[in-house]
Amino acid sequence: MRVIICGAGRVGFGIAARLAGEQNTVTVVDLSAELIRDITTELDVRGVVGHGSHPEVLRQAGVESTDMIIAVTHSDEVNMMACQVAHSLFHVPTKVARVRAQAYLESEWNDLYSRENMPIDIIISPEVEIGKSILRQLNMPGAFEVVPFAENAVKLLGVKIHEDCPIIATPIRQIPDLFPELQAVIVGIRREGQIFVPMPDDPLYVGDDAYFIVRSEHANRLLEIVGNNADRARHIVVIGGGNVGSFVAKELEAVKGIRCRVVEYKKDRAEKAAELLRRTVVLNGDAMSSEIQQEAGVPEAELVLCLTNDDKTNILTGVLAKKLGARHVVALVNDISIQELVSELPIDKVIDPRATTVSSILRHVRRGRILDVYALSDWQAEIVEGEVLETSQLVGKKLEDIELDGIAIGAVIQDGQVLPLERNLTLKKGDTLVVMAEKASFRQVEEIFRVSSEYF
After folding, report:
1. What angle do CA 422, 200, 212 make, to 5 degrees?
2. 3-state DSSP call for residue 426?
3. Total domain count for the chain?
4. Fewer CB within 10 Å of terminal CB in the chain, N or C?
5. What is the CATH number for 279?
6. CA-CA distance, 231 to 289, in Å (whole number)?
7. CA-based angle 107:111:114, to the nearest 5?
8. Are 165 and 188 in the same domain?
């Protein structure tokens, strides 16, 4: 696949790294010669210095023979215009744009993105994606990762294994026998910073991060079994009233029993947030001040969400909130090097917005009948949802006869039903699979869900 990426920032770099690492032909366009120099030095990509929406720059990048343009610059307007130019002048088949301003995403303006107007095939809103991720975890606080698949028939749950977990040192193959009523499969383990697909005789150890694919109605039961069930937070403080903070606070207003307050440093942004939010108290002040945090109710808060646009502010306000007595603190951190530092600080969870955005884009880039993709642990592994076509190598095979290297099947949805993963279960055309794949096996996953020429 030939891809042009407009924007060489964190998100553009992440997408380029993934696509180039899978033998796609990638060209990156950015106004910054320094960013282009860095990305072409570190990755096997071509770089073009210039404005991402200018026709002559896109032509220089090879737009006339490209399959997809992904516009992820810092400017919504540049991203949208790049897609318009790519369509109108060069007939690029697939156009993806990152759009951050919520004013462009109101439902009443949906016609703007039709093929007759501004033909953008896929719009990615990082703020909305991050907000949804936070809200999912609010509903299941015992998990550090919560992602729905197959129209919410199953969920990915990431669970930290503590000393009181009853399945420690138990071979994974024995776990279904211990809890026969539970439809859950361990598809991955992160140990000492590395993710791998476990073998049937592998045990869990204290400190592991275990990744489960679980039938959605069994998710709470799973958290009870592993000792990670917790009450949902009712008193929440949001630090930052920008796009992410306002989106989360607005969604929380619709949840009965939750009391939320927002702290925003900039007066104009605080006023804008106050206009948007009906039942949420918005404080205009510096969250780096203990007095402001106390006024916001941080010492009694069950959850503090640090969601400003500045990594250092999120970290420092999170540390202060924890010192003042907040039970649980979550911080939004873009910089990978800082993320590693945060593990040494009293912050309970770090959210990487780049990973969320890249995952959103990858689900549209994958070949074959791949329906959804979610990247784990700095792209060491992926959770993939795909449809089994009649030309797939898996059709007609029993689970016990399928040999996949570095890939674990977590769920089979057949005729709308999540089936128990019994050894004699036979896969058929039209089944939906949810699998986890190690990095080295990404190509094999695409092959499993590949659309053969015989299909047409």
Report:
1. 75
2. strand
3. 4
4. C
5. 3.40.50.720
6. 29
7. 130
8. yes
Residue 235 lies in a domain: no
Query: What is the domain-level CATH number for residue 439?
Result: 3.30.70.1450
391 and 429 housed in the same domain: yes
User: One-letter amino acid identity for 29?
Assistant: V
263: domain range? 244-327
How does pLDDT run across 367-399, given as a tens digit for each residue?
A: 557 888 888 866 789 999 999 988 888 999 999
Does 211 share its domain with 151? yes
pLDDT at 451: 57
Q: Which residues pair with 95 in a beta bridge?
A: 69
Q: What is the per-residue pLDDT for 455?
A: 39
Same domain membership, residue 210 and residue 194: yes
Q: Are residues 9 and 113 in the same domain?
A: yes
pLDDT digits (tens, 9 = 90+) for 270-280: 999 999 999 99
Q: Which amino acid is at 93?
A: P
Q: In 3D, which of 150, 159, 145 has the Cα closest to residue 412?
A: 150
Please answer whether residues 13 and 39 qualify as being in contact, where contact means their C-beta atoms are separated by less than 8 angstroms: yes
Q: Are 270 and 297 in contact (CB under 8 A)?
A: no
pLDDT value of position 286: 96
* Beta-strand runs (E) in 67-179: 68-71, 94-98, 122-124, 145-149, 154-160
Q: How far apart are the first and last CA of the chain?
A: 20
3 state DSSP class of 317: helix
**Residues 293/321, Cβ–Cβ less than 8 Å:** yes
Conformation bin of residue 353: beta by default, left when phi > 0, alpha when psi is -120 to 50? alpha
Residue that is last in its domain, among 98, 124, 150: 124
- State the Rg of the chain over Cα: 23
Enter the tokens of residue 361.
């884009």
49 shares its domain with 134: no
Output the CA angle 112-115-116, nearest 5 degrees: 75
